[in-house]
Amino acid sequence: MNRRHFNAAATGLLMSMGFKAWAKVKGPILILGDSLSAEYGLRRGTGWVALLEQRLRQEGKAMAVVNASISGDTTSGGLSRLPPLLAQHQPQLVVVELGGNDALRGLPLATTQNNLTAMVKACQAQGAKVLLLGMQMPPNYGPKYSAQFAALYVEVAKAQRAALVPFFLQGVADVPQSEQWFQSDRIHPVEAAHPILLANVWPALVKLIA
Q1: 90 backbone φψ class: left, alpha, beta (φ>0; ψ -120 to 50)
Q2: Are 172 and 188 in contact (CB under 8 A)?
Q3: Any idea which residues carry the catalytic annotation?
Q4: Is residue 146 part of a domain?
């Protein structure tokens, strides 16, 4: 069989399988995050990642989601965990939701930015698209620090041509009486807030998997 006949046969096979079956051949979506993505303090299956899996099924997008999020993780931890995750899962898209714990621990902004840059490059080198979920710090960290922290996500996304959600907690942490959207620790969103988090992520994510 020559190449032309092979390609024709392969195309016919894929058409007979249907688009959904073809979508299953692609790699999964890998979520590399911290407690915000690991369902900290929530009932299993109610966090935004679980809701994402449900939304994908409802939209007819036959894509697996691998949630590799760990509570308390930093960008350094994520960077060290990333290579084996890429090798094991061969994702087509990696969502990086890290950095908040860096700020809470007072780690240098340059370290956070360098780690995020390294993670994006590692994913892209494996052929995966990247979506960064940006974070912002409360005003009590000081306006200069807060501005610089938020800006580093923008800088990494722009320099590495990665997709970006500027503020993952938009509509939850930046609204009047925001305490209603958080658990008693004032850090982790309650179950009712996670549909809002998914709504923040979904438009950018669906563009990457279209």
Answers
A1: left
A2: no
A3: 35, 185, 188
A4: yes
Q: What are the tens digits of pLDDT across the range 183-202?
A: 999 999 999 999 999 999 99
Rounded average pLDDT over 149-165: 98
pLDDT in tens, 81-98: 999 999 999 999 999 999
DSSP 42: S
- The predicted pLDDT at position 24 comes to 42
Residue 197 lies in a domain: yes
Contact predicate 55/17, CB 8 Å = no
CATH number of the domain bearing residue 169: 3.40.50.1110
Check if the beta carbon of residue 62 is closer than 8 Å to that of residue 20. yes
Could you tell me if residue 91 is left (phi over 0), alpha (psi between -120 and 50 degrees) or otherwise beta?
beta
Q: Can you read off the two tokens belonging to residue 189?
A: 């969103």
Considering the entire predicted model, what is its pTM?
0.87
Say if 30 falls within a structural domain: yes
Angle of the 109-125 helix axis to the 75-89 helix axis, nearest 10: 10
Top-confidence residue, 186 or 20: 186
Is residue 54 within a helix (H) or strand (E), and if so which, with residue range? helix 48-58
pLDDT for residue 3 is more than 80 = no
Whether 8 is in a domain gets the answer no
pLDDT at 9: 41
| Amino acid, single-letter form, for residue 108 | P
Residue 156 domain boundaries: 18-209
